[in-house]
Amino acid sequence: MSGVKQRVPQIILTVVALLLIASAFVARPEGGSAPLGPRLLAIADQEFATWFSILAVFAFLMGGLNLVATHLAKIRERGPDRFYSLVTLVSFLVVLVIGTAKLGGPPGLQGDVTAPGSWLTAVFDAVLSPLHATLYSLLAFYIASASYRAFRARSLESSLLLGSALVVLLGRIPAGRHLTAWIPEPLAFLRVEELSLWILRVPNTAGQRALMIGIALGVIALAVRMIAGVEKDPRSGGDGS
Amino acid sequence: MIAAIHLSGDVQVWIGALLTLMVFSFLWRDNPFYKFAEHVFVGVSAAYWMVMGFWTTLWPALVLKLFPAAGRWSSPDAPPGAWDPLALIPAALGLLMLARLWPRLSWLGKWPTAFILGTTAGYSLVRYLRSDFLYQIQATIGTGLAPMAAGRWLWQESLAQLLVLVGTVSGLVYFVNTREQKGAYGRVARWGLLVLMITFGASFGSAVMGRVALLVGRFQELLGPWLGIL
Amino acid sequence: MNDRCDRIASWLEGLDRRWIFLVLAVVVVAALLSGVSSPDRATSVVQPIYDRIENLPDGAPILLSLDYSPSSAPELEPMAEALTQHALLTGHPICYMSLYPTGNNMISRVEERIITREFPQAVPARDWVTLGFQVGGEMLINSLRDSLTARYPTDVTGRPLRDVPALRGVRGLGDFGLIVSLSAGQPGLKEWILYAGDVLDVPLAGGCTGVGAPQFFPYYPLQILGLMSALKGAAEYEAALARGHPEFTAANQPATRGMGPQSAAHLVIVAFILLGNAGLLLRFLARRRSP
């Protein structure tokens, strides 16, 4: 039994991955007269992507159930934050009912769950959208504070970092454009908006490309290790069972 | 200025504005208003994601394939689809995923996880190899270092391409940690570090731009729809 | 003298961050109220997107994937609005979809603000169609390669895709005249490049947030034909549109208007960076002078 527990996940992983890799090198056949092999690979390529999406929804459901379990436990333990757990639970359940029953909008279960007039869209407009946007906008304040406290020209490296950031900061706004508009046309490439674009297109492209190639090699190596069963992914059985 | 204020009469706008102010109150210090808003956000967004996942994906890709007749409730204008036995596989894998909730059956939850990892590994291996490795090498060296236009040598473009080539190679050299960075090799790695510093500076400048735009957006919402000043 | 330098440096280092927050907020509000803005011009990275739409064959549909949530809407929504206006002005049907769960609501906002208000004569299903959001990210893109109906048998209103004139001649992603992903992160433009642009022979362009912009420059111009980055990219596109279509100048230009407060905030942050370094310099001077 323990053999099944250990081997089946690895077999699933390897077979699925190898089929998809093979499918990338075989053209998707048109019509039903194609040989069985290419047809099977095309089905795998098409269906596995859809199954993945379905499983992602199940993961959403698991996440929701976990959220309920966690906050119910906090309420039962009568901890100091139980009121906030109650707030989370109530808002979760209210939106779940509104959305699942498709309240408002088109009649019955027809049409889009977010159709104009639906209650889910009202919740989105009044609650989710402002909260989502404001939580992220807080970062503008913290990034300003971090710029003041941490952005110091202490060495050649940090000076380059600072200089490049300043050029991009100034070159991406109209005020920066006016700042260096006096530079004559033959030397226009020295204007801050041109320099800013140049930094993004040349040194930034080089640095990002180096990072990208490094990451790609990492992803490829990780994929090969997983397919070969060398990599122990914590999500697929880190406890060894 | 106060005379120009026209407060909104829309309840939705008021709720949005008050929640916005609750979140902004965190800038002073952590407080119950912020905590309230934060917990509402967690609950609402989790439910919203679940609902969207169910109606947009699970319903058409699984429920309607297993029970085509259910289509008359959601889209009566569309002809009912055919029963698809292949849909039983993701349904079974999905149920196995839920088995994780019961400790004695949790080992079955590894099967769908293995499928997800296999799919990710299979797809990403080829895609990353092509787009982020081979095409990046092609873009770095493949375009030639001396572009011409109308018979003229574009020296600025050529210089830029040369710098991209040198910067990319030296950046990669900097990441290689299996060899001590000394001598000529060390100097190339040092050049790579400097290129990376410029890259990170550009990223910071660009990130500031993004974050500020979000802040401007929030103030626009407060001053416009809520206070009616803009 | 040394004491004074030290005192000023200490004061600068000990400044409560809430003063920084307050200054930033006041400056942004003041700039918003003043309404200062300055029209931009399209750079060589943005212009190709505009040119591509201008030169598309008559009636070629454009796929617009709004891969963002409300947190990135201030940067990306102006791009969606400008592209929608451009497509409708040039007679190209638009097909909206999204890789983000909040995508349907983001699409509705663009429909309401632009199509309903500015183009009341536009006909649903003929001039635009909304496929909406589905879970899967890159897997969704992969599923749509050969056939949209593999994942979207109907549009969001329940209309079968074969009854949608906007998608006449479109089977899979490769049949669009142009695909544009407005991307806030993952899944987004990168997934469109890896799973559609580099796999199919389809022109791909993108818009992205300021945070994500630097990582997309390596893909330009080989793998994406153009890139709008952050609010500046949107303002550039608005400028190109205003130049090419004078009727657009009267319309709302949210990105161009937003660049005023954006400028003010950038200048404040630059000033704070310089102030922080001034403290470092003063400390350095004090140490050098002390015996």
SSE topology:
The complex is a heterotrimer of chains A (241), B (230) and C (291).
Chain A: H1 2-23, H2 36-76, H3 82-100, H4 119-150, H5 156-171, H6 174-179, H7 192-201, H8 203-228
Chain B: H1 11-24, H2 32-66, H3 71-74, H4 88-98, H5 110-141, E1 148-149, E2 152-153, H6 155-175, H7 183-226
Antiparallel strand pairs in B: 1-2
Chain C: H1 2-13, H2 17-34, H3 47-54, E1 62-67, H4 73-89, E2 94-98, H5 103-118, E3 128-133, H6 138-144, E4 178-183, H7 189-197, E5 204-208, H8 213-216, E6 227-229, H9 230-244, H10 254-289
Parallel strand pairs in C: 1-2, 1-4, 2-3, 4-5, 5-6
How does this structure look, described?
The complex is a heterotrimer of chains A (241), B (230) and C (291). Chain A is 71% helix and 0% strand. By secondary structure, chain A is mainly alpha-helical. Chain A has a domain at 1-73. The termini of chain A are close together. Chain B has 230 residues and is mainly alpha-helical. Chain B has seven helices and two strands; from the N terminus they run H-H-H-H-H-E-E-H-H. Helices cover 70% and strands 2% of the residues of chain B. In chain B, helix 1 packs across helix 2 and helix 1 packs across helix 7 (183-226). Chain C folds into two domains: 2-34 and 258-289; 47-252, Rossmann fold. Chain C is built from ten helices and six strands; from the N terminus they run αααβαβαβαβαβαβαα. In chain C, helix 1 runs antiparallel to helix 10, helix 4 crosses helix 5 and helix 9 (230-244) packs across helix 10 (254-289). The longest helix of chain C has 36 residues, at 254-289. Classes of the chains: A mainly alpha (241), B mainly alpha (230), C alpha/beta (291). Chains A and B meet through helix 1, helix 2, helix 3, helix 4 and helix 5 of A and helix 1, helix 2, helix 4, helix 5 and helix 6 of B.
